[in-house]
Amino acid sequence: MPRIVQKFGGTSVGDVDRIRKVAERIKKTRDEGNEVVVVVSARSGVTNELLARAKQLNPDPARREMDMLLAVGEQETIALTAMALHAMEVPAVSRTGAQAGILTDSAHTTARIIRINTANIEEPLQENHVVIVAGFQGVDDLGQITTLGRGGSDLSAIALTYVLKADLCQIFTDVDGVYSADPRIVPNARKIPVISYDEMLELASMGSKVMQSRSVEFAKKFGVVFEVRSSFNQNPGTIVKEEASSMEDVVVRGVALDKNQTKVTISGIPDQPGTAAGVFQALAEAGVVVDMIVQNVGRQGKANLTFTVTRDDAERARKTIETLIADEEEGSVTVEGDVAKLSVVGVGMRTHSGVASTLFKALAEESVNIQLISTSEIKISVVIEESRSDEALRKVHGAFGLEQEALPKPQIGNSPIA
Amino acid sequence: MPRIVQKFGGTSVGDVDRIRKVAERIKKTRDEGNEVVVVVSARSGVTNELLARAKQLNPDPARREMDMLLAVGEQETIALTAMALHAMEVPAVSRTGAQAGILTDSAHTTARIIRINTANIEEPLQENHVVIVAGFQGVDDLGQITTLGRGGSDLSAIALTYVLKADLCQIFTDVDGVYSADPRIVPNARKIPVISYDEMLELASMGSKVMQSRSVEFAKKFGVVFEVRSSFNQNPGTIVKEEASSMEDVVVRGVALDKNQTKVTISGIPDQPGTAAGVFQALAEAGVVVDMIVQNVGRQGKANLTFTVTRDDAERARKTIETLIADEEEGSVTVEGDVAKLSVVGVGMRTHSGVASTLFKALAEESVNIQLISTSEIKISVVIEESRSDEALRKVHGAFGLEQEALPKPQIGNSPIA
Questions:
Q1: How far is Cα B371 from Cα B164, in angstroms, rounded to an integer?
Q2: Whether residue B23 sits in one domain with residue B164
Q3: Measured between CB atoms, which of B56, B78, B86 is closest to A58?
Q4: CA of A81: which chain B residue's CA is closest?
Q5: Is the per-residue pLDDT at B342 higher than 90?
Q6: CATH, residue A362
Q7: Beta pairing partners, B240
Q8: Which residue, A88, A119, B9, B293, is most buried by CB atoms nearer than 10 A?
Q9: Distances (CA, A) of B249 to B243, B328, B376, B406
Q10: Comparing A320 with A413, which gets the higher pLDDT?
Q11: ipTM value for the complex
Q12: For residues A258 and A389, what is the distance between their CA atoms, to the nearest angstrom?
């Protein structure tokens, strides 16, 4: 019998009516002849309520107690989901992370899965039950409740798919799948039916809210095939899997825009070994996460170093560099917040020439100036002025022919359909 | 170092401000040189919210899933209480029922404690931590979460006091202690400083909301001394313990009134062996709980049988008896709802004469007619008309001199003091 893991996020189980709809979908999957393991998140809003109470009592709560507190969210959902299935005469049983055998290390609030003892899941499956597992949580070898951090429920689902040797993992969320571009900016963007892990990772790292990179990396490492699809309609979603030969026919899978970028330029610093290392060590110590880095060839023994950071980190980056420059008594720093990063992603591009030139030509035709360029195996990113970035995205999307298929208008957002 | 178990009910931990006050009290107890183990309930209201959601999804939820659901209430409270203590720089750690080693049978929603493995509590105590245990919940030998039913958190506290060999158990609630009568009816009632388990049981069974009989019975069985006191003031409460010789000086400890009574009379039934047995077997099968039973001497081979039931059970009792009488073709049934049961309780009364006559004389002076009388080792109960029962209670309270000591006006209810 085929075995399917279905994961439902917080919006999908946001109230009792939605939990009932989730149960109906589970029942349908089971009625079609599948063994079903379900992973659920906390109802949306619950985690924030719990955090608010915690902060009122303690501005810096202990991580162990935070895990104890947050784990109640999914525990509520698994019980309610089981009850909803029982009301439809579907045999079902719930499992906390600990009961599901999800053993983690003891890094509270950011625990890593060590192994999963599946006996407590296999047994009810053999007895024809749906097994409903609390996502996001596990237990360490001392019996302490742990949580897996952001995106933890996706990780629970993908890890369970692997250890249970399930045939498919479905990640139900409030978006319809992965698109060739953000449909709010590019109305004729189309849903990508199949995408590789690496492409998904590049898109995920670019602020696409579909999934955390961590879960995609785990799926890639263990070869877990999963589908991202909407819990509010019946449309097929996007299948994420290892690159397949047929996938190579497509050069560019999608284009993405990240407006949460600030460009920092350090000018006139010594062009000698160790300069860049000193800069990025200081930034790392200050907790600033650096994204793109470009260093120009210097003149007269001086170099210019440019990098991008998120806007939250911009002020911290400026102060760190100013302190460093003051110590060295050389160089100057400028911070520009009105920039955006536009990226073209596709596994095909590494075996095709011309992707870069198509991108640059499209931007030139829109008279958009390129401030920085950075390339990887499957991605080319450019930093451009933010005010023109939406038009630029639409232009580039069209230049790669991503809109060419006439498909139904993409659905996005959390409007449930009847 | 003295060891104290403190239990705080749902009202006492009803919001973050109250949790902070609870933490202050725990800190004070610890600062006074005690090892402290804390048992907490779910925030008041949480259980009802969870039940409401469950009922919307399933009118008859599975008990196992109900336990899974309800257990989140205390888990939230233990985490928040630990965080509040940490903010006061008190080392503290929380334990779910399972983590606290509270092993129960598998009777979901009404589980019984089998044993408690204290290692996970002793260890942090040795390390000078306050240990905060989720009341009401445990775990069966398959790792399933169980709950102990009504009054379960009191039971958790008393059982932990026993297995941890603690010196005292304090049950903090929204009343000040046990009174010689309900202060809302008898304004000059006084708080009883010390009471025996049996007296407490008689008062508890009479609708006194202080504690469930089950926890008192457990305390009696294992000789656990506990104190009932208010979480909203610093007043000493009522100590509940085995009868002590000094306690015998007092004849009557308190008087109680139970207005949730209905009197059922069956007249003209055969006065022969087996008649009463048939009646009460039929009532038991119908799920009717019978309180007082009185059978008068019959005449001409006929007997009258009178008993009391709660008002909820009155209609069911009537129907059961009517069916029985119809089968036997003899007798008639009358049901009177406007009655109350007044009881005089005290371990001293069994070695003193004159308690019954004092009671009857007091009622006679108030012109209150006695409809039924029932006696036990430590209690005399009478059924009287409800409309006069408040005056009767005040009169009887005075007749036994229970108001004689001039004490501060009793405080009751949940008005927190600063």
A1: 48
A2: yes
A3: B86
A4: B57
A5: yes
A6: 3.30.2130.10
A7: B195, B226
A8: B9
A9: 11, 52, 19, 19
A10: A320
A11: 0.81
A12: 9
Q: Which residue has the tokens 């039971």?
A: B155
Domain with A377 in it = 255-399
The total number of structural domains in chain A stands at 2
Identify the pLDDT of residue A247.
60
Cα of B120 to nearest chain A Cα, Å: 10
> Which residues of B fall below an 8 Å CB-CB distance to A?
16, 19-20, 23, 50, 53-54, 56-59, 61-62, 64-66, 68-69, 71-72, 75-76, 78-80, 82-84, 86-87, 93-94, 96, 98-99, 120, 143-145
Provide the pLDDT for residue B246. 62
In terms of C-beta density within 10 A (0-12 exposed, 13-18 middle, 19 or more buried), how is residue B201 classed?
A: buried
Q: Are residues A259 and A393 in the same domain?
A: yes
Judgement on whether residues A385 and A279 belong to the same structural domain of the protein: yes
Q: Which of B17, B66, B69 to mutate to test the interface with A (most CBs of A within 10 A)?
A: B69
Higher pLDDT, B189 or B161: B161
Residues A392 and A263 reside in one and the same domain: yes
End of a domain among B154, B174, B194? B174
Cβ contact A19:A414 at 8 Å: no
Residue A176's pLDDT is: 85
Q: B18-28, pLDDT tens digit by residue? A: 999 999 999 99
CA distance linking residue A325 with residue A332, whole number of Å = 7
Residues B259 and B166 in one domain: no
A48 and A166 housed in the same domain: yes
Q: How far apart are the C-alpha atoms of A296 and B416, rounded to whole Å?
A: 69
Where residue A95 sits, what CATH number does that domain have?
3.40.1160.10
Rounded to a whole number of angstroms, the distance from the CA of A24 to the nearest CA of chain B is 12
Mean pLDDT, range B202-231, rounded to an integer? 84
Q: What is the mean pLDDT of residues B253-260?
A: 90
Quote the CA–CA distance of A396 and B218 in Å, as a whole number.
76
DSSP percent split of chain A into helix, strand, coil, nearest 5: 35, 25, 35
Cβ-Cβ contacts under 8 Å, A64 against chain B: 93
Last residue of a domain, one of A143, A174, A205: A174
Q: Give the mean model confidence (pLDDT) for residues B201-229.
A: 83
- The pLDDT of residue B210: 73
CA of A185 vs chain B CAs: smallest distance (Å): 39
Question: Tens of pLDDT along A267-287?
Answer: 888 877 777 888 888 898 888
Sign of CA dihedral A190, A195, A200, A206: negative
Read off the pLDDT of residues B75-96 as tens digits, 9 standing for 90 and up: 999 999 999 999 999 999 999 9
Asked, for residue A237, whether it belongs to a domain, the answer is no
Buried b (16+ CB within 10 A) or exposed e, B278-313: ebeebbeeeebebbbebbeebeeeebbbbbbbbeeb
Does residue B47 sit within a domain? yes
- Same-domain check for residues B126 and B264: no
pLDDT higher than threshold 90 for residue B3: yes
Please answer yes or no on whether B86 and A53 come within 8 Å at the CB atom.
no
For residue A197, is it within any domain? no
Give the strand order in the sheet containing B145-147. B113-116, B102-104, B137-139, B145-147
Q: Tokens standing for A390? A: 């939406």
Comparing CB atoms, the residue among B68, B76, B143 nearest residue A78 is B68
**Residue B81 domain flag:** yes
pTM score: 0.82
A86 contacts in B (CB within 8 Å)?
Answer: 58, 61-62, 65
Model confidence at A415, pLDDT cuts 50, 70, 90, reads: very low
Domain co-membership, A70 together with A161: yes
Question: Among partner residues B72, B86, B98, which is closest to A76 by beta-carbon distance?
Answer: B72
Residue B209 has a pLDDT of 66
Owner of token pair 């006695």 = B370
